[in-house]
Design goal:
201 residues; alpha/beta; three-stranded mixed β-sheet; 6 helices; 26% helix; globular
């Protein structure tokens, strides 16, 4: 069972449909017992970092995510779900992230010829040996929608990089935790490959 965490700020329907298309059973829930009994967990997210963290915390699901990670359940963060795994964000008033990894979320600086947010397709440089990107060709294109990007403190957890205005960390994997800034559920066949790789871990 792949459980999608529902805390009020997730892009739930498209993620659920993508897994269903691949033939995997999903459960959308905010119940801690159901989440911790899952085979796999997805932490989606759209919107503002602070609002999402406040909703996650208000539902008590911040601790649930930490428990799931410690328990060793494979977790996939998508978009804002990646950002919340880190310590802090420059977006809005300071609100602590989950702090599962060291690093911060920074805002793209204004640059002539580039629009903020980045909306659309961009290629990524994949780290060899990544489990999340198994059999995905390097420099494949994925769909991004974001004004803020990850600056991870530990290079060893970075599974893929992207370049928009400047290079940034586009995906991470460490132990049982995986996450991507782009939207695999909106990235066509190559995005479905990412979800399939995660489901089959």
């Amino acid at each position: 069972m792949i459980t999608i965490i529902d805390y009020g700020a997730g892009n739930l329907e498209s993620v659920e449909k993508a897994f269903a298309f691949l033939g995997y059973e999903t459960l959308v829930t905010a119940n801690e017992d159901e989440i911790l009994a899952s085979d796999k967990i997805v932490l989606p997210g759209v919107g503002a970092f602070g609002d999402a963290m406040n909703m996650l915390t208000a539902a008590g699901l911040d601790e649930t995510v930490r428990k799931a990670v410690k328990k060793g359940i494979p977790l996939l963060g998508i978009c804002l779900g990646l950002q919340m795994l880190f310590e802090s964000s420059e977006e809005g008033k300071p609100v602590p992230g989950l702090g599962i990894f060291k690093g911060r979320i920074r805002r793209f600086e204004n640059c002539p010829g580039f629009k903020i947010p980045q909306i659309g397709w961009n290629s990524i440089e994949i780290r060899p040996g990544s489990r999340l990107f198994k059999d995905v060709p390097n420099n494949s294109y994925f769909y991004f929608v974001h004004s803020y990007y990850l600056e991870a403190e530990e290079e060893s957890i970075v599974a893929a990089k992207c370049d928009y205005i400047h290079p940034f960390h586009a995906a991470i994997e460490s132990g049982n935790v995986f996450a991507c800034q782009f939207h695999p559920e909106k990235s066509g066949k190559v995005g479905l490959s990412i979800l399939k790789n995660f489901a089959e871990l």
